[in-house]
């Protein structure tokens, strides 16, 4: 169900009043299929060119699944409109400190990203959808870990905190990428529109 929701976000299709087929051997590829009766329910948000050699590399990895070294994953970064535009133009600027030390903080869970900046109105919130080449990953699963702040000096490119280990106030997962050149912006998403297209985000946030 989560995969279907993420695909809905990616392609901008609101799948209400529709029939969904998933994993029941009715589709030749054994993948899910959707049939929407009223085409007025479908709105195109973006036309994307798909390169064959990139299809399998940019994956939506579930929040609790450990990232693998040298893979490319889709992640999210929540911020203000002004900063989002600056990031798109000039790239990410790493934080000098934080829970995992210096780096760019990202989440694979869009429900976490839409909450930032904390205290801001949804009209000023934006989420950057990015693809990240995680390189070599260090798992930090306990507060006070020996490598919590200096993992990058030991040859690691990304630090990952699993969900449910008590290190993040929301109990969700966290990623910190040391080199911003590993991050490529795919899209800028307005939080207010995301919640309008997916009402469940309003409830969960």
From TrEMBL:
Task: Identify the residues that the record assigns to the PARP catalytic domain, covering every copy.
Answer: 40-137
Gene Ontology MF term list: NAD+ poly-ADP-ribosyltransferase activity
Q: Which GO terms describe its cellular component?
A: cytoplasm
SUPFAM superfamilies in the record: ADP-ribosylation (SSF56399)
**Family that this chain belongs to:** Belongs to the ARTD/PARP family.
Q: What is this protein called?
A: PARP catalytic domain-containing protein
Q: Which organism is it from?
A: Oncorhynchus tshawytscha
